[in-house]
Amino acid sequence: MTSMNRTALLNDLAAMIAKLNAARPIRVAIDGRTASGKTTLANELAECLKGSGRQIIRTSIDGFHRPKVERYARGRHSAEGYYHDARDLPAINALLLNPLGPGGDQWYRTASFDLHNDVPIEQDPEFASADAILIVDGTFLQRPELREGWDLAIFVETSEHVSEQRGIARDTQLLGGAETTRQLYADRYRPAFALYESLAAPTLSADAIINNDDFERPALRLREGGRLAAR
Fold first, then answer.
1. Considering the entire predicted model, what is its pTM?
2. The total number of structural domains that make up the chain
3. Which has the minimum average pLDDT: 13-17, 160-164, 199-203?
4. Within a domain: residue 231?
5. How distant is the alpha carbon of residue 4 from its chain centre?
6. I want to staple 57 with a disulfide (CB 3.0 to 4.6 A). Which of 50, 99, 134, 137 is the partner?
7. Which of 44, 37, 56 is nearest to 138 (CA)?
C-alpha cells in the first residue's frame, strides 16, 4: 500500500478511471464503513474527473432508502435491520445500475425515496452519454445483490476507532446527542459492518483500497487482477 499526499492520490486515481472505456457508462462504487470518508472521497474524485471531458454523474445510495416502518422493523438499534432493511436494493438495480450497464437504455434515476419526508418519489429519468462515469458512494455496495452492477469498486478503509470518532462528531446533532450516537454506532453500525464483512468480504473484491485513517496522506493499494491494476 503506497501512501501519498491526498491531491496526488486523487489525481492518480482519476487518471486511471478516465482510461476505462466500455462503449457505455462506467459505474464506480465508493464503498466502506460508516463515516470512513466515502462521500468526501467521491466528491473529490468527481471533481478531479471533470477534466477528463466525460460526463460525470455523482450520486449516493441514500436516495434509495426504504420507508421508516420497514427500516426499523427489527428495532432502531438492530444491526441486521441496518444491513437487510435500510435500502431498496431492487430499485437501485432497476433505476440506476441496470440502465447504465450492458444492454441498458442509459436512462437512469438517482432516487426513489424522500428520506426526510418518508415518502416514495417518482423522479424524471436523465440520459447518460455512452462515455459517462457514474460515481456512487454508500455502505454495503459490494453486497451480493449489487456486486454485478459495478464496473469498478473502490473501498475506503478506516479503523473502527477512527470512523466512529468521525461519525460521532458528524452525527451527534442529527441523531440526538453524543451518547445516543455512540450507542447507535455500538449497536447498529459497527456490527452491521461486521455482518457485511462476513457475507461479502468487500476488501477482497474491491479493485482498489484507500486507507483513509490519515486524511491528508491516504494510502492506495490496487487489487492484483482488478481493473485498475491492469492499467
1. 0.94
2. 1
3. 160-164
4. no
5. 22
6. 134
7. 37
